[in-house]
Amino acid sequence: MKTKGRLLQRACKTRWLSSEAAVRAARSEILAIWAALKQLSETKNDAMRIGLLRLLRTKNFIMVLYLLSTVLPHLIELSKVFQEGCFNFAQMKSSIELCIVKLSDAAAKSQPFNGT
Length: 116
Prior knowledge:
Blueprint: H1 16-28, H2 30-44, H3 47-56, H4 59-83, H5 92-109
């Protein structure tokens, strides 16, 4: 029986699309990532894998992952507007304002994390 897996994308510092794809994949597969790192760290007792697993299980990492998965799609949409070949500078202000409204709506709909 073949299992269908999702390939995790490497986040590139300069491309919104690759960052968003990496965040989306990591968010949807976080439990599998934890399980794989745990198994690898137990079998090879590798300090780097153990440290990475600890980092990925922190509340801050999970919060950032969820924040990025909410914010990046809107920023990508705005970025694509600016990358169009025939961009009209008169649209700039309205495009940015629309992105801000969408981000504000997303913030209003999101559930805050409790605790510290």
